[in-house]
Amino acid sequence: MSTTTPNDFDYYPLPFELFTDEKYKHISSGAKILFGILLDLSARSKEKGWVDNDGREYVEITRSEIAQIMKCGNKKVTSLFSELDSVSLVERTQYTPGKVSITYVNKIGNFK
User: Fold this and answer.
1) Selection from 71, 45, 72, 68 nearest residue 56 by Cα
2) Which pLDDT score, from 0 to 100, does residue 108 have?
3) Are the beta carbons of 106 and 70 closer than 8 angstroms?
């Protein structure tokens, strides 16, 4: 029988503010999880070359890829993105089905 420690797990960052700040009280747990996934991806933006001409880091991922990660449908992903948009946690380029969208992740709290 093996034991595990917290360091044995990979995880997505979820800032406390998503749960404690009144601004985010109405967004769903799914939207908060999506934000954690996007925040994790954005942490590696520079090494992947995901930086625009103004030096802003972004994330490149399709809705289908997110749907696979989150084990849900594309419509659900679209709904979750809308929730994040409503509280200015993300900025996205125009969505084209099957294409990679550019998503700017606006950091909050300790993740500024």
Assistant:
1) 45
2) 85
3) no
Mean pLDDT of the chain: 87
Q: Mean pLDDT, to the nearest integer, of 76-104? A: 87
Residue written as tokens 């880091």?
A: 57
Q: How far is residue 104's CA from residue 4's CA, in Å, rounded to a whole number? A: 35
- Listed residue (20, 13, 34) closest to 86, CA to CA: 34
Residues paired with residue 90 on neighbouring β-strands, in sequence order: 105
In whole angstroms, give the CA distance from residue 32 to residue 38.
10
Is the pLDDT higher at 10 or at 64?
A: 64
Give all domains of the chain, ordered by start, each with its CATH number. 13-111 (1.10.10.10)
